[in-house]
Protein 1
Amino acid sequence: MQFGGTPQRRRNRRQMLNVELNNDAYPHGLMMYNEPPNMNITLQEFETYAFERVQVLHFLDSLSVSAVKNSTAYNEKLTEFLRKNYPGFLLSTATGREVSDAELEWRRKDHISHFILRLAYCRSEELRRWFLDKELDLFKFRFLHESQSSIQQFLKLNNLSYEPISKEERTRYAAALSTSSYDMSEANVENSLFYRVPFVDVLNLVTSRRVFLFQGDAFVPQKEFLSIISTRYREHLSKALVMTSRALPQLDEDDRLLPILKSFNQTAVTSAYDPKRNEGKVSITDLEELSKLSYPLCMRQTHVALKETHHLRHWGRMQYGLFLKAIGVTLEDSLKFWRQEMGKGIGIDKFDKQYSYNIRHNYGKEGKRTNYTPYSCMTIITKNPPSAQDHHGCPFKHTSSDLLRQKLKTYKAPSDSIDEIINLVKAQHFQIACGKYFAATHKMEESSFQVTHPNHYFDESQKILKGEKPTGRGRGGAKQENEFNPTWAEPIHHKTQVNQDLDESEIERMMVEYSEA
Amino acid sequence: MPGIEENMEAAYDPNSLPSLLPIYYKYIFPYGPFCKWLFYGTTAGSESLFEKREFSFTLQNDIYVRYQSFATQAEFGKELKKMNPCKIDIGAIYSAPPKHRNRVSGGAFKPLTKELVFDIDMTDYDDVRKCCQGADICKKCWTLMSIAIKIINRALKDDFGFKNILWVYSGRRGVHCWVCDEKARALSPHARSSIVEYLSLIQAGNHEKRVSLKDPVHPYIRNCHQVIRSYWDQYAIEDQGFLEEDKDIAKVLKLIPDLDVREKVEKHFAGKNSAERWKKLKEICSAAYESDPKRNRKLRYVSHEIMMEFCFPRLDVNVTKGVNHLLKSPFCVHPKTGRVCVPIDVSKVDEFDPFSVPTISELCIEVERSEMPPEESETQDKETPDAETPSASKKLLSLFRKTSLQNYMKPFDSLLEQLQNDVPAKNLIAQSDLKGDF
């Protein structure tokens, strides 16, 4: 795909479409995307712009699994990718000189493509979340490449002015300030700038205890300033996405744009897994055998714990129960299996009374009747961390490396791959470590796919064991970095599956905020 | 004293609950203060915060009824007296009265706000307490709750700037915290989980060592350490004897990250008591650190880490995170113990004794002994938060003030007073919201 042609031709077309493109419209390379573009563009442009931006976002997505954000490796890989595919995002805004036409063109493209993707990704909370995360990564990366003066200009343009605290205030809290972030001695405090903001503006710093809190205010050091801005950006964008999703029905009649927009959906998110696709394929008598052959480690350990202790706590039952549903255990079988196992511990009566409801609930037979989807790796890794009495979670993330090593040995993983796995774990590459485990236990050099979902892991394993050819890429939300093809020629599927993985209430709250505003 | 306590507890028989609850809801439940709290200065009508609040009841035989809501105190009281729930849960304030949720179109029924709540449960400490396990508690391990309350309460006030904080005994083995500030009630789930993370230190998962401190140690952790240190000798060494038996020692030794030092400490443990062992452990570790601070930096905070591992508050993230998560209401009766979920006075947290909290059977006896009200009609149902009806109904309503429940009402009453004083602050918040909105 080529973007537009020579500058000369572009300029002609602009004139043709009667668009004024000047420095006033785009005073800065970075923007908060406050105003939607108000100009005519061709369908060709519409698709090309969106497609190129999606590629960048997908690259960011795959990068976030393999490299630590803002590490040197991360920045290098991203820079290299952008240089080849989207040099516009590498431009930093120069202050004090004329902006070239080419730069303005990139800004326009940035602006338009962002808004097109808003349309494409506002359709479900899952998509919104994904889009928001990737856009934020992109924004942070670009923000960090701007010069001090250009950042000041950006802040001024967007009315984001923050005043650093006074010297007196700094001295008063010097001891606390110096112990609240890294490389900040008391002498350093004297020479650094701090900004006092409500703690809700820098939640990421609060979460990791990297900021001093006093009476509801956070004292943010200069080097963490980006946190403030990115929180603002995130809030702004998430509200805007909700607004867009409300406006979207108006587009429903547009048969030119909608197919393009919808084509992006299907390739966006890796966590969705249709809970019904395997229905009835697996019998509970095979579970023991399957747990040794095809279960990912996380499920194997919950299975073993259930068999041994005849009990799992709530999140363990959720994680394993939904997994079982999606590998194809029917509701009847599931009830039988859990009753059989848990009954040995707590008694059949108590099980029927207190636990069977939850299992029927998972299958959408109780309560609000949602057919819940099984947990993805991301959910298992980031949500509901296990406590000491729990057996759920991701063993690569939640087990100490000694214990993990022991476990891998008992499960007969080859010892050289154990070392490799442990090293990956230490570098925080939990899913890659899992992929390594898959390769080692299936006697392969490299795992044939990226592990993003326990059920996907299971399916791939089954394929190999049954002698089918592995698919080579994830399902539903497959990563298609190199061969992204908008499938707009295909009929549009209105996916009925609901993903309960994500925290709905946050989005819901934002919608409310908006409606009140 | 212990003898009396046991007798009192024995006096409550779970089987008698169905016959006691009607008396409790008729004469004892503090409707006035309770509803005044949840009205938050609003009055009945479209602005009412009470009407849109979800209540859930657990009835006899584990029947669970969600999405109950009531326009007035009278309506609320009437329902309680009719249903006699064994448990009342409080949920979020929704965009519409929960009982009418089907009248509003699809997505319009949403949870908007709720108090910021915390749930601390003694079962989460099972791996670090020797005296009891599971649902059991005793005075020895109750210290862990006092520590948790002190730590969390201080941080909520000083670090997060909240003012209206209510602590409640859960009736059996834990405590609940309700932060009622308007700002707290409006927090997003994201902000709520950030706060929990800030307050939590114990690493999740099956790790042998779950606390590792690195420089710089955050002021919050320093504060926590001070609180824990003030209890440590009495709690860990005297009450728990945490270095008494071999398996205890093995557990503590595993927390020393350096193998040589670990061995050395173990050798010095022979023939000593817990206090001497603890002293020795600290000496050896700090000596090892001093000898080569660069290489042994992991040893710098070993004693701190051990103290944190054993005493640091353990919070249930999920209870705090969800705006629509339900939490057992204050003044509910715990069906197993019969104890009322009474407010805890934070300024006297060390004096709080879960075993002397009145049970429903004691309260019912107290009411019987006190003078019975002249009429048992429905007069009290006319009472609304604003209406001042003197005479019989008023007398009836304040009966709880004549029971031993009154001894626990002080923190609740002062919370109500404070909330009243806080109302003018509303405008300021609205202004700052406007400024931040773009």
Note: The CA atoms of residues 278 and 328 of chain A lie 5 Å apart.
Protein 2
Amino acid sequence: MPTYTLKINGTSQSIEAAEDTPLLWALRDELNMVGTKFGCGIGQCGACTVHVDGNATRSCQLQVSQLDGKEITTIEGLSEDGSHPVQKAWKEIDVPQCGYCQAGQIMTASAFLEKNPNPSNKEIKSAMHGNICRCASYNRIEKAVAAAAENKMA
Amino acid sequence: MSTIKSTKFSRRSFLRTSSLASGGMLIGFNLFTACKDNVKMPVDISKLDYNDFNAFIKISKEGMVTIFSPNPEIGQGVKTAMPMIIAEELDVPWNHVNVVQGALDTKNFVRQVAGGSQSIRFGWDALRETGATARQLLINAAAAKWGVDASECTAKQGVISNGKGETLGYGDVVNEAALLQIPESDESTSEEEKSENPEFKDTQAEKAEGKVTLKDPKDYTIIGTDVKNVDIDKIVTGKPLFGLDFKAEGMVFASVLRPPAFGQKLESFDAEAAKSIPGVIDVITIGEKAKAMLSGDQVNWTVKLAPTEKVVVIAKNTWATIKAKKAIKAKWSEMSTLESTEKHDEALTGLLDGNDFNTLRKDGDVKKAFAQADQVIERTYESPFLPHNTMEPMNFYANVTDDKIHLVGPVQTPADAATTVAALLGRNVEDIHLEMTRMGGGFGRRLYGDFVYEAAEISDAIRKPVKMVSTREDDMTTGVYRPAIKYRIKASIKDGEITGYQLKEAAVGGNMYGLIPNFFPAGAIENYQVDVASYNSNITTGAWRAPYTNFLSYAEQSFLDELAEVMEKDPVQMRLDLLEKVKGTTDDRIQYSAERLQDVLKLVVEKSGYNTPKDGVFQGVCAYYCHNTHVAEVADVVMEGNRPVVKKVTVAVDCGIVVNPLGALNQIEGGAIDGVGHAMYGDFKFKDGVPQSKNYDSYRLLRMMEAPTVETHFVKNTLSPTGLGEPTLPPAGAAVAIALNKATGHRIYKQPFVSNMASKPVIG
């Protein structure tokens, strides 16, 4: 199997994988980074969201062969200690119920706030619409994104 | 109704203590049952045996408290709420408490099930008693050390004080406390009992040691405060927590190809192309063992075992299993009828039209009431199947060796899983060591352990540690579904009163049972009858969040609203009047409290502004009791152009004492939004046995922009707490349907609402 070098959370890592291996499974099975979650495998639920060059991207839809030279950030690399403003807001608001989708939610929210640091509630809802939370913690997700935006500005 | 009081438990019957070899005290206790007589407490923390106790508390020499509990967490927050109750009575600062999920050695299980919103309700007394007993043991040890009477000592926040101003930390006396006899309580024994029973003389003699007393709720410092999810740091930083995250040395991955249609079995398959995919180790079949447990074409619904072989891809990584499974060319043959939604519709309607019912409750004579009525109204309500769609797909780890069977993963019923695996593999249940992980949602799906048996059977065949992983498509199309149901409700009106009420249920695979026929409006209407009929299907059906009531509530509450309209009564006043008739009932089958249901209804009316409606806001109101909790909800619908939009749901809840408001609100909000979402969008059809939705591109779940804002109000009281995982879901669909009728002038009789009303609603 071919070898690929991926730049993940600032570190270059080599893996041996079939060229069509989605980044999601490379992270989970080859690199033991299991924070990025498998939900649907067709880019519909957002549980596998990571940042690629700063953009929120579905890692189940990205093949390892397409990632040469790309900067990938996963939930494990968003901050060293959970201190990213979005993570802090998630803790402050106590968002999770089962918690399974939350890494993807946080990655979507953090990429969104980089681009739109002062969003309206409508913009927040629209930005988060692609991430399913089956426990329906949507009210708190909305609050936490708003709180993160506020904390960041302060 | 039970209020805060000392329980009838004999403390020595359900908890034991030991002194740990490494120092500190260990307490083992049972939540639901008494201890067996001969159980021994371990002195080594690595030897905790959950067959003897539900949970253990360790108090270290430093005064730190660790709670070991194997109780599974599916997102309902019990892993936070249960330790809160112990910490409250033990009286330690919350930040001194650590919770560890323990593993189960599977011999004789007691209740270790997350389901039915029951964990807190059943655990309440035992958790408080255990915490209070540990506190008293520590006080008694300190009193002995000081040589004072225990009654002169108090404990607060992990520190014991005596009348002379001296203090000792819990850690300072924990070794001594571990050796003391477990004290009984004053309150549980009346003076009369004491004089009649010589055993109580001993208790009297122990008086100097001080007796266990439970706190008055007004003194609570942890219960009733906002405590964050104990796993929150791990969740937001992506640490391994869930079954899918578990790995072991030498582990391989497996994916199971199951029949694409319910009613099919495997004839043959060609795996040549699949085997050539890089990473694939082997392609095997399983199912012979399951077939051996069944006779003929019989399906064991309770454990979801079907008599067919399945093809299994074994590979070095998950991606190879997914690819290889698609490359397998399998032939399937018909084992039993391949069913379709149209046929189900006909069959259920046929059952409702027929006379073959099982009567679950019968008061008076509904036939007579209908014959003598001024007016009779009859409506039929219909619902589809629903898949659970937990975000974490089904998966399990198994390592079967000659000595042991190691199982790890997310399952709500570890006891059944272990006993079935033992039976399946012809092994002793003592060989099985089962560890439960955090679960990425349950909603009832993980009550059924089919994925555990598959993982075990695969590992047994290949003799390697293996992780069975389902894809979303596997999950959605080979699931256990909320049954498709039709309700026909008929009521008679005579002289402005409801004189008769008959509810008929026809459900695929059956639905209602037990106590549900005794829920409101049972007891409020003189002539009342509940009849059920079931259609036998080869499609697996079972519990789905708020089982039995998730659809029943919508049917009954919609019907009551229409009844009020026909009778030209205010729907709130009509319910209050009906409930008034139940007060003081001597019918002990009645499950709900008329007072509590009236109170939540009045509260939601007040808080939602129901009596002073705003222009353009259409409100639907309902009140419902289920899963031991009383809830009333008001849904606000506004018209945007010609589209109705659900903006808000106001919820009033009486769940007794709210242990952790922060967690409780999360459950309430999630339940209400989930109820709105599935009533609006949830649809799942079959054609020739094949599910017509396979993934989120063909199955609609509610998303952020469709989520209404939920505003919650609690009825404040000091009654024993009841669960919240389910009770706010059933009323939500009803409140929305009633509001949509006001907004559009259309009654909706069928779920999902989006497909069954004139102008399509959106939520947001």
Note: Chain B has 20 helices and 30 strands.
